[in-house]
Design a protein that fits this description.
Structural class: alpha+beta
Strand order of the largest sheet: 5-4-6-3-1-13
Distance between the termini: 15 Å
Number of helices: 10
Number of strands: 13
Order of helices and strands: HEEEEEHEHHHEEEHHHHEEHEE
Largest sheet: 6 strands, mixed
Shape: globular
Low-confidence stretches: none
Mean pLDDT: 94
Radius of gyration: 20 Å
Length: 377
Amino acid sequence: MPDGAARAVCDGASRAFTAAFGGDPDGIWCAPGRVNLIGEHVDYAGGLCLPMAIPQVTAAAVRRRTDGRLRLHSTGFDAVDVELGERVEGWGAYVAGVVWALDPPDFHGADIAIASEVPVGAGLSSSAALEASVALALANLCGLPVDDNGRNVLARVCVRAENDYVGAPTGGMDQQIALRGRAGHALLLDCADGHVEHIPVDTAAARLTVLVVDTGTGHRLVDGQYGSRRAAVEEAARLLGEPLREVESVSALDNPMLRRRARHVATEIGRVRVAADALRSGRVRELGPLLDASHRSLRDDFEVSCAELDSAVDAATAAGALGARMVGGGFGGSAIALCENDDVPRIETSVTAAAAARGFPSPVFLHATPSHGARRC
C-alpha cells in the first residue's frame, strides 16, 4: 500500500471524526503494522530482532477537550465515552492505556476517531499501530519530544500501556518498529537497551517478495499461552544466571521444557545476527534458510505454531519459496515467505490449496515492503 493509500486511511479517520463528533480534528496521525523478518519471542528476553514496518496503517484523528472526557470512535466497535481515569475495556483499552501511561502535561481529554487497514488478529500488530498513532498524536499536541529518543520513550510508554493496563505481556518490538521504522529498511532492535540500526532491505533489486500469509486464524496475546512462554524464558534465564542472549549452552537446565524454550531464544538471537550481516551486504536471499530454521525452532522448541501456520509454511516452501516461517506471537495469525517475484502466483495458489484441503480458512495475501514509522498525516 503506497503512501497515497495511507493517505486514504487518514482521510477515512477524518471523515469518521466529523461524523462521530462534528467539526474537524486538531490533526491526524498514523502508524504502521509490522512483519518481523526474524527474531521472534526474544524481545522480552532482551534479545535482538529484525522487524520492518508494512504499508498498512492505523490512523487516529484527534481533537483535545477541556472537560476531562475521553471519547473514542472506531468503525465496527462500540463507542467509548468516559471520564479521564475511568477504566476502559475492549478495544478502547489500548487507547486509554496510552493516555494513562503517558500522562501528558496539560491534557484534559480528547475526541479520537480511528480508521485502519492493519488486519486485526493477523499477527501484524494492529494493537501497536493503534497505540503508536495515539501516542504520537498526544506527544505532538502536548509538546513532548518526538525525535528518535522521544520515540523510544513513547514506545516504552506503549509497552507499559499494553502490559499493565490492557494486560497483554508484549515485549516491546512491535511498538518500537511502529514508532521508529524507516522506509526501505528493517530495524535491528536491541531490546535490552532500545538501540537501533536501520538496515536497508532492497527486495526490489533482488527481484524478491516478502509474502505475508494471513491464515485467517486470529490470535490473542491476552491468554495463558503467551504468558507461560514468557514466564518460562524468564525462569530459564534466572536458573542459568545470565541473559539468554549471552549463554553458550542451555544444557545445564534440567527441565526439558525450559531447556527447549531457552534453546529457541538463544538460537533465534544468533539467527538475527546472521540475517543482519546478510542484509548489510545486500545478500537478501540468504534469509531463506534462516526463516526455515526459525520456524522449526518456533514449532518444536517454543511450541507456538499451529496447524494452519504449519500448512502455510510447508506449502510455500514446497512450491519454491526460499524460506518461510510463522510471525508474531503465534497460536494463529500470519506467516511470511521469501519468494522470487515470478514464483509468487504459484506459491499463493499452493498455500490456498493446502488450506482448502484441510478445511482451514482461505488465506489472504499481502506483499510487504519496508515502510515508514508513525507520522503526522
